[in-house]
Amino acid sequence: xxxxxxxxxxxxxxxxxxxxxxxxxxxxxxxxxxxxxxxxxxxxxxxxxxxxxxxxxxxxxxxxxxxxxxxxxxxxxxxxxxxxxxxxxxxxxxxxxxxxxxxxxxxxxxxxxxxxxxxxxxxxxxxxxxxxxxxxxxxxxxxxxxxxxxxxxxxxxxxxxxxxxxxxxxxxxxxxxxxxxxxxxxxxxxxxxxxxxxxxxxxxxxxxxxxxxxxxxxxxxxxxxxxxxxxxxxxxxxxxxxxxxxxxxxxxxxxxxxxxxxxxxxxxxxxxxxxxxxxxxxxxxxxxxxxxxxxxxxxxxxxxxxxxxxxxxxxxxxxxxxxxxxxxxxxxxxxxxxxxxxxxxxxxxxxxxxxxxxxxxxxxxxxxxxxxxxxxxxxxxxxxxxxxxxxxxxxxxxxxxxxxxxxxxxxxxxxxxxxxxxxxxx
Length: 426
Prior knowledge:
Blueprint: H1 2-29, E1 36-40, E2 50-52, E3 63-66, E4 79-82, E5 87-100, E6 106-114, E7 120-122, E8 125-128, E9 143-152, E10 155-164, E11 167-171, E12 184-190, E13 195-200, E14 203-209, H2 210-213, E15 214-215, E16 221-223, E17 238-240, E18 255-257, H3 269-272, E19 279-281, E20 293-295, E21 307-309, H4 311-316, E22 322-332, E23 337-345, H5 348-369, H6 379-382, E24 387-394, E25 398-407, E26 415-418, E27 423-424
Antiparallel strand pairs: 1-23, 2-5, 3-4, 4-23, 5-22, 6-12, 6-23, 7-9, 8-9, 8-22, 9-10, 10-11, 11-15, 12-13, 13-14, 16-21, 17-20, 18-19, 24-25, 25-26, 25-27
C-alpha cells in the first residue's frame, strides 16, 4: 500500500513537471511586440553616433562625456555634459531604421541633471524628420516632437511641443520641472488612439487627449458654412417693458427753434434765401427716452452654427510622424547640464523599469553626495562620514566582540558589516 501511494505521488509529480515545462516552453516561444527602437547611455564610443553642428558656430559650446562633479563611480552617471556657460549646445544622432508612428504607441524617455542651480537653461530633446542635415541642425530645423524641461527667468515648465502641418503646437498644461541638482527622468507617451501620458521620475503627472490639450492654430473643428440661424431663434436677452410709456412732458428734442429771434432788416432773400428761425439748445431736454428693460423669458442664447471636423486639421495628421534622428539644441547660461539615458520604445513598462532602476541606485546615491547647500561632497570629505559602533560583551568564560558595524561610504556607498569571531577564553 505504501509503495502504491508513493508511486501515485511520483506519477502525479511527473505530470505536473511536464505541464510546467510545457508552459515555460510555450511562454518562451510566444512572440512579443515590445521593441526598443533607440537607446543611448553615452558610453565611450558615443562620438561615433552623435555629430556636432556648425549652426551658429560662433555661439557653439562643447559637449563631453562626463559624470560631472558627482564623485561616485556609477557607470550610469556618465552622460553628455554641457561644459561652458552662455553657449548653444547642438548635437544629433541618426536613427536607423526610421521610426513610423501612428499605428504604434511611442514612448520617449530621457534624463536631465543640472549640476549648478539653473537660472536659464534647458534639457529638452527633439525627434527629427526626414530632411534634417546633421552639420546644419539647429534652432531652425524642423522637428516632430520636443520634450523636456525648459527653465529661464522665472518661466519653468516641462515642454511638450508636437508638429502638425509644419508648425509646432504647445502643450497647454504648465507643469514645473524640478530645479534641484539631481538626475530626473522625463517620459512622454504618445498613444496611437490620440491620447497621451507624461511621467516624471517614473510617476505619472499628466494624461489626456492630444486634440484638447495642445494649442493648435488650425482648429480641430470649424463652423458649418451650410448651417443658418432659424427664423424663430430669439437671441434678445432683454426686451422693452410694454407697460412702460413715455411721459407726455418728456422733452427729447435737444435743439429747438428760437422763436424770440427776429429777421434782420437788411436780410436779402434773393441773395441769402428764405430766412428761418435759428435753433438753440433746449433747456428742458432730457435725452432720448427709452423704455425700461425686462428679461426675455424666451431667450435662447447666442446662436452658433454647428461644428464640423476641419479638413485642414485632419490632414495635419497629429502624432503620425516619420522619425529619422534625435537631437539636442539647447542654450545654457551655466555649465553642468548632464543629458543621458535616452530610450525610444513602444513598451511603457520597459521604460519605467529602466528609469526606476537608476532612480533607486544612482539617484539615491546622488542625494547622499549632495550637501544641504547644493554643493557636492568630495571623496576625501566622505571618509569622515564613517560610522563605527562597537558593542563588547565580556564574560568569565568567553571574550566576545559581538558586533561591529562599519558604514563605509565608498564610491558605491556599500555598507560593510564586520562581525568579530567569538573567541572562547582558554
